[in-house]
Amino acid sequence: MSEYNKEQLSSLIDGEYEGNNDKAFDNLMDNQEMIKTWSRYHLIGDCLREHLPERISSQVFTQVTNALINEPTVFAPKKVKKINLNPFVGFAVAASVAIVALFSIQNSNNNNLASNNDSFAANTAIPSEIQTFSFSRTQLLPDNSRKLGSQEEVASQRLNNYLMNHNQYRSNGNMNGIFPYARLVTIESQE
Amino acid sequence: MANNATDKELIERVKNGEKSAYDLLVLKYQQRIVNLVSRFVRNHSDALDVTQEAFIKAYRALPNFRGDSAFYTWLYRIAVNTAKNHLAVQSRRPRTSDYDVSDIEQIEGNTALKDQATPESLLLKDELQALILKAIDDLPEDLKTAIMLREIEGLSYEEIACVMGCPIGTVRSRIFRARESIDQKMGPLMQN
Predict the structure, then answer these.
(1) How far apart are CA B163 and CA B149, in angstroms?
(2) Residue A141 gets which letter from DSSP?
(3) Would you call B122 and A40 a contact, using CB atoms and an 8 Å cutoff?
(4) Which among B2, B27, B179 is the nearest to A16, CB-wise?
């Protein structure tokens, strides 16, 4: 072993090696003479710092080495890299997720409703004997309001009629929000 | 301390499956751990067994070592706990020197009952210490100062360079030459 290699080993022991540490450790572990030197240099340090036991033996090293032969090789799990986000980026990400979640929930609700209506319409035919009724436009609109009757009022009245005619099928269509057996009647004040 | 970086590199290698990197850590710390354990466990042979157990426990637990503390601090805690457990087990064991014939096998297998360290395999601390101190006294003043500042004061090469008023490269060379000179004087004793 050259003096140069030993000087490298000396600085490696002190954590002061300036070259490629990986390469230096590879060289060290492949060379039994360098391993012995590593051990003796550490022994010198231990002696100067008064870390030595009363009796010095290399028995521990021999026994540990023999015991480790039968030990399974340890492999540490790879570290998961942490994403370092500043608070603003974190807030933006959270807001984006919330918006996406909101739209997706709304969309899925609409789809459910549409599919429910479609299946209900497809599977349920209105029996011909069921009587439906509707108010005529003249019945719906009192005289004094006919002149003032707006399109909105007419639309609202038509919706009421529709609901009354189809009320009994509501429970079959799994549509919530309307009592299945209650007849809904709208009242309009008439003078 | 700068050589924590060395420990970290070795630990990473062990975690990547290089068992031989752990050998270097054992060689580095074995005397310190034996010294530590000997404060708890008086019997030398038991102290060696406890030290060995501590190193094996540390090896098994190494995947969980996150590096928040220095490796030696972590190893120190394992060694102290192992020594305390050993003492607890010893205190529960009945103290008797009368063994049945049926116990012979157990006695043979029990390392605690026989002193494995034969006089030939042991080196006395006082003997080694005297030799190393003599070797240091014989060193030129600049080498002696450099090695003492490094090993006893724990200064970095840069700090030693400031103290001694010389380039870092010179510090590196002086510390190496000091170690090499001491090592050569230790040689015959280590071979024996």
Answers:
(1) 9
(2) S
(3) no
(4) B2
CA of A96 vs chain B CAs: smallest distance (Å): 35
Smallest CA–CA distance, residue A31 to chain B, in Å, is 11
Contact A64 B16 (CB under 8 A): no
Q: Given CB atoms, is A13 within the 8 Å cutoff of chain B?
A: yes
Beta bridge partners of A72: none
**What is the end-to-end Cα distance of chain A in Å, rounded?**
118
Beta bridge partners of B123: A56
Is A120 part of the contact surface with chain B (CB cutoff 8 Å)?
A: no
What ipTM did this prediction achieve? 0.84
Number of H helices, E strands in chain A: 8, 1
A74-88, A124-138, A151-165, B41-55: lowest mean pLDDT where?
Answer: A124-138
B22 CB neighbours in chain A (<8 A) are: 68
Q: B58 at the A interface (CB within 8 A)?
A: no
How far lies B119's CA from each of A56, A72, A77, A117, in Å?
Answer: 11, 34, 44, 96
B148 in contact with chain A, both atoms CB, cutoff 8 A: yes
Residue in A closest to B64 by C-alpha:
A76
Neighbours of B81 (CB within 10 A): 12
Greatest extent of chain A over all pairs of C-alpha atoms, in Å: 120
pTM over 0.95, yes/no: no
Q: Which of B48, B19, B29, B69 is nearest to B121 (CA)?
A: B48
Task: Using a CB–CB cutoff of 8 Å, tell me whether A28 touches chain B.
Answer: yes
Dist. CA B60–CA B51, nearest whole Å: 14
What single-letter DSSP state applies at residue A79?
Answer: P
Summarize pLDDT for A29-53 with one digit per residue, the tens.
999 999 999 999 999 999 999 999 9
Query: B41 and A53 in contact (C-beta within 8 Å)?
Result: no
